[in-house]
Design a protein that fits this description.
345 residues; globular; alpha/beta; three-stranded antiparallel β-sheet; 17% strand; binds zinc ion; binds (4S)-2,6-dioxohexahydropyrimidine-4-carboxylic acid
């Protein structure tokens, strides 16, 4: 196959940041995706509908001329999120999900949830309102091995949460392990997961190839090869429970390349193209369209897109860096080639 025309996809997990950083990155997503679920982990976080509405306007103001791209907003769940806040979110029509970060789990997760069970009333209200809960699925106990944190979260937090709230719709974000694949496959109706390009294309060796590689550091951290294979096999099987969510998470070069560098991989510049590589690697290109354009829309109860995008099998070189406000941004595959190219229409 040398050309692939598919329904325009959506990105069901994206970090766009704010200000000059937002302006630097949003065009990459708008060139590929019709819509994106926009993560609320700004600093301070987006915890109310007025804040989400204002953030949405800032995103729209940064779009390149002529771009049609719809930001689907989320609220950041905290210990003090009220039922009234959830009701306002639903009534706005702009907010499609509520993001649960265990406190301290990742970038700007300091204001996250300290005790998931304590919020059971709020989860019950979300289920009634039909708001999707988007979950960063890692325990934060520093005594738990970093490669085990996702599996531990399933056993101690996510599994019980899903049982306690049988009607709550849950997206287990950026899954990275065979345990997560198995959990999502076997879970009740209304449970799904997103998968990033980096977790499909790279294993944890990438972090240490010839030296420490901060641009491959994200959370959840890259896992062993057997886990990566399990993700690929899940997508090759075509279950509607798995869909595209890049977790593209830009950080300035200076914030990545230091003694304690930030977590996050930037992939928006080549996201769909990288997924095409991953699907091709297992002979599953015919499955790409549903993963990228159908499963997520169906899960969120939104219409599927009607227009299309075209990819051609023609290698191109990713720049070594992009401008990023006063700093620069090092993208995934910087200075290397990507096998598929998006045809601009
Ligand atoms: O690597 C990550 N970066 N994981 C997250 O969960 C957050 C993200 C960010 O916002 O930078
Ligand atoms: Zn994320």
């Amino acid at each position: 196959m040398s050309a692939l025309r598919i329904t325009r996809p959506d990105d069901w997990h994206l970090h766009l940041r704010d200000g000059a950083a937002l302006a630097a990155v949003v065009g990459f997503s708008a060139a590929r995706f019709a819509r994106a679920i926009v993560m609320p982990n700004l600093n301070p976080p987006v915890t109310s509908t007025p804040q989400a509405r204002a953030y949405r306007e800032r995103i729209r103001a940064c779009l390149p001329a002529g771009a049609r791209f719809e930001p689907l907003m989320t609220l950041y769940l905290t210990d003090s999120t009220t039922a009234a806040e959830l009701e306002a979110a639903k009534a706005s029509g702009l907010i499609h999900g509520i993001k649960l970060y265990p406190a301290g789990a990742t970038t700007h997760a300091e204001a996250g949830v300290t005790d998931v069970r304590a919020l059971d009333e709020r989860f019950a209200r979300m289920a009634e309102l039909g708001l999707v809960l988007e979950v960063h699925g890692e325990v934060t106990d520093p005594a738990v091995d970093i490669f085990e944190r996702e599996a531990r979260f399933i056993d101690t937090v996510l599994g019980p949460l899903i049982e306690r709230h049988p009607r709550l719709r849950v997206v287990f974000e950026h899954i990275t392990t065979a345990a997560a694949v198995q959990f999502v496959r076997g879970a009740r109706e209304g449970v799904a997961a997103t998968v990033t390009p980096q977790h499909l294309l790279l294993n944890r060796n990438a972090l240490f190839a010839g030296g420490i590689r901060p641009h491959y550091y994200c959370l959840p951290v890259l896992k062993a090869e057997r886990e990566r294979r399990a993700l690929l096999e899940a997508l090759a099987a075509g279950s509607p429970r798995f869909f595209l969510g890049t977790d593209s998470a830009p950080h300035a070069r200076g914030d990545k390349e230091r003694a304690c560098g930030c977590a996050g991989v930037f992939s928006a510049h080549a996201a769909l193209e990288l997924y095409a590589e991953a699907f091709e690697s297992i002979g599953a290109l015919p499955r790409l369209e549903a993963f990228a354009a159908f499963h997520g829309a169906d899960f969120y109860g939104l219409p599927r897109n009607r227009d299309a995008v075209t990819l051609v099998r023609e290698p191109w070189s990713v720049p070594a860096q992009f401008p990023y406000g006063a700093d620069t941004l090092v993208p995934l595959r910087a200075g290397e080639s990507v096998a598929w190219r998006l045809v601009s229409e």
